[in-house]
Amino acid sequence: MTTLCNEKAPILVNEEIGCNIWLMTVEAPAIAGGARPGQFVHVRVPGMDDHILRRPLGIYAADAEAGTVDMMYQVLGFGTERMTALPLGGSVELIGPIGRGWQPPAGCSRALLVAGGVGSAPLHPLACELAAAGVEVTAVLGAGTADALVARERFCAALDCEPACSTDDGTYGRAGFCTPLVEEALAAAAAEGRPFDYVACCGPEPLMRLVAAMAAEAGVFCEVSLERRMACGVGACLSCVVDTVDGKRRACVDGPVFPATEVVW
């Protein structure tokens, strides 16, 4: 079981890496040492005394040896806007690592990872772990425009190959949504007689719902990472409930990763 830590984390990097998408690297050795792919941290942003709730951010990378944690965040409101102004040498307070991460099936030999937008962040550690274990990984990345495909180079490095990419405006890869690329990958794997053992998806909920349906039709186990507004982040407040076939579950501690067949879409 993961040990929950509360760390005051010095900021080492805080830079814009795409249109309104930022990368923050912090020094948080306890969290870095215990993080698993798919988990997240709950961030207290300094200078927000009138906004006491923390921000949940997926762990983009955790380097246990260096003691660092990378977080990708998109500027959507007051809290994330405030984060862009935090200086190097300043700090944020993190609780983590939190939640149920990705759980590929035992003996997985071929996996399909599907990311929409900043949903690529929680999938990147999974890509690294699966590739290091010798699993054959296919990645599909979708974004609005080429500037928003901010994780493409990291996936290239992790998998030693180019991920299949699409952009809504056609500025990189296939024009349009990434779902046709997912359909093609599932069909090609089945035609080869080597179907995928596992599908993992993170992104906008309509994308995850469609990918879950494709995986179910193909008979492939699928997990999704759900985003919800969170108050406490540790399972006490029930503000982040998800409707599942087993009733209401908490995204923060019962998730954020759920088997797709358990989610009531």
N-to-C SSE string, H for helix and E for strand: EEHEEEHEEHEHEEHEHEEEE
Number of helices: 6
The computed structural class is: alpha/beta
CATH topology of the largest domain: Rossmann fold
Give the beta-strand count.
15
CATH homology-level superfamily of the largest domain? Nucleotide-binding domain of ferredoxin-NADP reductase (FNR) module
Question: How are the strands of the largest sheet arranged?
Answer: 10-9-8-7-11-12-15
The CATH C-level class name of the largest domain: Alpha Beta
Could you name the ranges where pLDDT drops below 50 across 5 or more consecutive residues?
none
Fraction of residues in H or I helices? 10-25%
Inertia-based shape: globular
Radius of gyration: 18 Å
Strand content: 25-35%
Total tally of structural domains: 2
* CATH architectural label of the largest domain: 3-Layer(aba) Sandwich
On the 0 to 100 scale, the average pLDDT is 94
Whole-Å distance between the termini?
Answer: 29 Å
Largest sheet entry: 7 strands, mixed
